[in-house]
């Protein structure tokens, strides 16, 4: 692999890591919203 390939790979890896972190945060917030006592759906809270 040449230098250009290594740079692109590092950039892609960094972008993927950042995207994964944002998705994880969004998922945690979504689950909290739907299952918390304050904002959750009665359908799910009763289960």
UniProtKB/TrEMBL annotation:
Entry protein name: Uncharacterized protein
Lineage of the species this protein comes from: unclassified sequences, metagenomes, ecological metagenomes
